[in-house]
């Protein structure tokens, strides 16, 4: 098996992203971020201004990142997905942004700020930055088209020991809700929760491994250990860039999921607050969209930035609208989310 060249793939050789130490650079800015987002092409404007990259500490799971910050880890800025923001607010770990220092804030598409969790009379708590899809990655040489027409491929006995799911409660519940006919997770009944949990228990029987970050998922598929994975865009982009026969099915009959992530301003950060804003402004610059798409496969929340990449094939393949149901991973009830997290841990343990 050839090793993938991407730095994100290489992370898995040293262990999961959540366990990686900080990548030291500019000591005046510490960015707590997902593995893979340390690529300068996404925030080149910061390097252009300061001559160095920020110091990065990397993680692979939103809940683990929260626990680390809640336990006292110090950083200046973090990059959670939208459903985590209420948890950070409730814990008192973040403070509002001064959007007068973020000129491109006004270019963020309105749908990404359509929640009082993100913006209320106390201020703007969240700067949405990137978005993507969670769908079915599959080996095009071993998985026939008819099998990926339904999410039930994940419970098909033919694929026992040949699938991989993310070690992320949000993503696996998005999958399970879709598979059982739910497309809005903000209005889930007890019966719908139980049906999704039952489906996940079936899916667990086929799982060879739960991937902790896209690097691990990509290695599992590149090695031939699994044929099918519930995947973000980046795992597919990494594999396709290396010539592996991997497709991305975003339109099974039950649908697929979308998510978006962004930046929170951590209270009492140890670094330079002005550099925090410089980093966000570099991220929101129009030119950042191309770097984001090429390295991660994600879309940009700025309409101006997205306009610069709208004709790219990667946008058409991985981000364009599909004729299938969509479950949007928007903020949901914190109590329901904790219930899902606890149930997922039971399922992974075989209960």
Automatic annotation (TrEMBL):
Keyword line: Periplasm, Signal, Transport
Entry's Gene Ontology BP terms: polyamine transport
Keyword Signal: yes
Any single Pfam family the record assigns to this protein: SBP_bac_6
The protein's name in its UniProt record: Polyamine ABC transporter substrate-binding protein
Signal peptide: 1-24
Subcellular location: Periplasm
Top-level taxonomic group: Bacteria
Molecular functions (GO terms): polyamine binding
InterPro entries: Sperm_putr-bd
GO cellular component: periplasmic space
């Amino acid at each position: 098996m050839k090793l993938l060249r991407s730095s994100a793939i290489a992370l898995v050789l040293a262990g999961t992203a959540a366990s990686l130490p900080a990548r030291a650079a500019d000591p005046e800015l510490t960015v707590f971020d997902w593995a893979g987002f340390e690529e300068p092409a996404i925030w080149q404007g910061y390097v252009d201004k300061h001559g160095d990259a920020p110091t990065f500490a990397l993680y692979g799971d939103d809940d683990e990142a929260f626990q680390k910050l809640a336990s006292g880890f110090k950083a200046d800025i973090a990059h959670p997905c939208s459903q985590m923001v209420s948890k950070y607010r409730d814990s008192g770990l973040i403070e509002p942004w001064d959007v007068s220092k973020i000129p491109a804030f006004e270019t963020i598409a309105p749908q990404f700020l359509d929640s009082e969790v993100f913006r209320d009379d106390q201020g703007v708590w969240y700067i949405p930055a990137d978005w993507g899809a969670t769908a079915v990655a599959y080996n095009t040489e071993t998985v026939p088209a008819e099998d990926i027409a339904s999410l039930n491929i994940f419970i098909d006995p033919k694929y026992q020991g040949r699938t991989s799911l993310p070690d992320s409660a949000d993503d696996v519940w998005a999958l399970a809700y879709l598979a059982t006919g739910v497309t809005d997770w903000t209005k889930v009944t007890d019966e719908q929760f139980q049906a999704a949990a039952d489906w996940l228990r079936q899916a667990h029987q086929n799982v060879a491994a739960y991937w902790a970050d896209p690097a691990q998922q990509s290695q599992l598929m590149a090695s031939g250990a699994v044929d099918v994975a519930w995947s973000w865009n980046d795992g597919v982009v990494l594999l396709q860039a290396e010539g592996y026969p991997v497709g991305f099915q975003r339109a099974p009959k039950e649908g697929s999921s979308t998510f978006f992530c962004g930046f929170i301003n951590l209270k009492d950060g140890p670094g330079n607050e002005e550099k925090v804003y410089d980093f966000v402004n570099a991220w929101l610059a129009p030119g950042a969209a191309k770097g984001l798409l090429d390295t991660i496969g994600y879309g940009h929340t700025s309409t101006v930035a997205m306009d610069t990449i709208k004709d790219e094939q990667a946008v058409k393949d991985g981000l364009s609208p599909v004729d299938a149901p969509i479950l949007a991973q928007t903020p949901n009830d914190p109590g329901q989310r904790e219930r899902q997290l606890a149930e997922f841990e039971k399922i992974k343990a075989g209960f």
